[in-house]
Specification:
Blueprint lengths: L1 H13 L21 H53 L4 H22 L3 H6 L1 H16 L6 H15 L9 E3 L3 H4 L3 H6 L10 H7 L15 E3 L8 H31 L1
Helix pairs in contact: 1-2, 3-5, 3-6, 5-6, 9-10
């Protein structure tokens, strides 16, 4: 650039009456290789480029200023709208900020609970009920009608519902028939187990190391209790075999009794 300026100054001194309009040289041509005409043309082009850049910069500044003005107007309009909404629900901006903070805290607690596995959640159902109670309290407040909170409260309601887990009993100690009426049918029917006596084959098949005959279980045995759900194909197969054998035994007994009666 210094070379170009020096060359232009020299050319201006040597050729003051330069009138020829020469196009700017290629940008790849070094300044020190330029002729006087080319140096003048390059400087002229540079001035033109600078002027265009200034115009573009002025345009950008003008657009930024307009955007800032529009943003300020939008912020003012939003504040006015919020103030009107706050007045409708009888709340101040401080009240709304406090309410917003409470919702944020509840969302944080829900996210923490969502990271727990099913067993841990089952052990913390009192905490889940506490989250539900807090949500209900927030939902009953007038500020719940403010648009920014509606979707958040709706999502919290869905997420807290998803935290409910039944506490599963993994083991059951068999009591006596006289005191507890314990058999596989009655154990499966207990509310804290399956609340469905027809699920008894699940307990049988989970404890075949102890239970050889599902009609006979001993007091003091600790039986594994599988998760609730439809019976597996193996459990249904074992159940069908049990009932076939039981019918066959009963028919054999009845046939024997009939035969004995005939002999007499």
């Amino acid at each position: 650039m210094k070379t170009l300026l020096a060359l232009a100054l020299f050319c201006g001194m040597m050729l003051p009456a330069l009138a020829q309009d020469v196009p700017p040289p290629p940008v790849t041509k070094a300044d020190e290789l330029l002729t006087c005409d080319e140096a003048e043309a390059r400087i002229k082009q540079m001035k033109t480029d600078v002027d265009e850049s200034k115009k573009k910069l002025d345009g950008v500044k003008s657009a930024v200023a307009k955007s800032e003005s529009d943003l300020a107007n939008s912020v003012a309009a939003l504040k006015k709208c919020n103030d009107e909404i706050y007045a409708l629900v009888g709340a101040t901006e401080a009240d709304v900020n406090s309410y917003r903070q409470r919702i944020g805290q509840l969302e944080g607690k829900v996210r923490e609970m969502q990271r727990l596995n099913d067993d841990a959640l089952a052990d913390r159902q009192d905490d889940v009920k506490g989250l539900r109670s807090t949500l209900n309290e927030l939902a009953r407040m007038q500020m719940a009608m403010i648009p920014e909170f509606y979707e958040r409260l709706t999502n919290l309601n869905r997420d807290i519902k998803g935290l409910y887990r039944e506490k599963r009993i993994k083991g059951y100690t068999v009591g006596t028939w006289a005191e507890n009426r314990d058999c596989l049918w009655n154990i499966a029917g207990r509310t804290e187990i399956y609340a469905d006596p027809f699920q008894w084959p699940k307990i049988w098949q989970a404890n075949t190391d102890k239970i050889k005959n599902p009609d006979i279980i001993q007091p003091g045995w600790v039986l594994s209790v599988p998760p609730a759900g439809p019976k597996t194909s193996e459990e249904m197969k074992a159940e069908r075999k049990y009932y076939r054998n039981k019918r066959a035994a009963q028919e054999s007994t009845e046939a024997g009794a009939a035969s004995t009666g005939t002999t007499k």
